[in-house]
Amino acid sequence: MTTLHISTDKALLDVPLIHQFLSERSTWAIGIPLAVVERAIDNSLCFGAYVAGKQVGFARVTTDCATFAYLADVFVVEEQRGRGISKALVQSVLEHPDLQGLRRFMLATSDAHELYARYGFTPPTRPATLMERYFPSIYAN
What we know:
The protein has helices at residues 15-25, 34-42, 85-95, 113-117, and strands spanning 4-7, 45-51, 54-63, 68-76, 104-107. By secondary structure, the chain is an alpha+beta fold. It has one domain (4-140): 3-Layer(aba) Sandwich (Aminopeptidase).
């Protein structure tokens, strides 16, 4: 594999690729409008994964950079999977200087529990204390 480069430089992000993946190929954001993706990127710490200068992966973190972070929209394009890119991407997220010393770092996943468990993510210790407002079909309207 050509050298993998991971960057938080938003100027490098291939926003059309990110939108296309999330809106058409993800399991969690089908139909998400481009304007929503752009606003999410603008208000998050974003990580792009690049091979030979082409974006092949993405992750974003919503955080106050002090006590809390939420990892979202992690993906690697299908043709680049199985090469360790998702592991390198998550490792880069967790090593970022702005994300050290946080009290809580959360995420939601339906199929990548094993990946995140490698990095210390577990089911909530006290699930009875967590609540949410969840609108799974919000982008279908």
